[in-house]
């Protein structure tokens, strides 16, 4: 109930003004958490198909920066060089000796929409990286509109309303979306 409206005294009048979505908040938040985790799942799934273990290489590079002993640093650097060289030489070998075979549906999808995207061309990870970043952006914007649809109208403009009130030297802490005063019937 907005702060400028009268509170109804009868039970039936109060029931008509109840907010009924509070019980769904944990489920909505859980669904949103999954939606924010989804791009990570996509990245992990497509990253594995690149032919290089990026997680392992990044961990080795971080260890390289942290280790102070020369022998350990040299061994880690050799490991990094060998793995990157192995990836590059395997890619070159596959390009020279390409064998036609039946492609999976995911590979056909990438060939259809990203004709130059292929781990054999060397740009697979770059394309996947930008696709996942685009997925993060679309996900964030879609969730703003999803919350607006669930909570009611004008929530996506809440931040702009606060900034507008600040520029007009109005009290921005009182608003219709997040009331500071509540009333509890006992």
TrEMBL record:
It comes from the Eukaryota. The keyword Nuclease does not apply. The keyword Ion transport applies. One of its GO terms (biological process) is monoatomic ion transmembrane transport. It is found in: Cell membrane. Belongs to the pannexin family. PANTHER family: INNEXIN, INNEXIN-5. This is Innexin. It comes from Rotaria magnacalcarata. The gene is inx.
């Amino acid at each position: 109930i907005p702060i400028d409206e009268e509170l109804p005294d009868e039970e039936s009048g109060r029931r008509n003004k109840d907010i009924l979505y509070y019980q769904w908040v944990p489920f909505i938040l859980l669904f949103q958490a999954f939606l924010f985790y989804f791009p990570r799942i996509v990245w992990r799934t497509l990253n594995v198909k690149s032919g290089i273990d990026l997680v392992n290489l990044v961990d080795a590079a971080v260890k390289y920066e942290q280790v102070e002993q020369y022998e350990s640093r040299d061994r880690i650097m050799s490991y990094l060089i060998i793995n990157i060289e192995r990836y590059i030489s395997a890619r070159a070998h596959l390009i020279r000796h390409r064998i036609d075979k039946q492609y999976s549906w995911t590979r056909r999808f990438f060939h259809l929409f990203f004709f130059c995207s292929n781990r054999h061309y060397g740009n697979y990870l770059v394309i996947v990286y930008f696709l996942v970043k685009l997925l993060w952006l679309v996900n964030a914007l879609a969730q703003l509109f999803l919350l607006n649809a669930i909570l009611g109208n004008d929530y996506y403009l809440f931040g702009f309303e606060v900034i507008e009130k600040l520029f007009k030297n109005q009290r921005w802490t009182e608003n219709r979306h997040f009331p500071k005063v509540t009333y509890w019937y006992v």
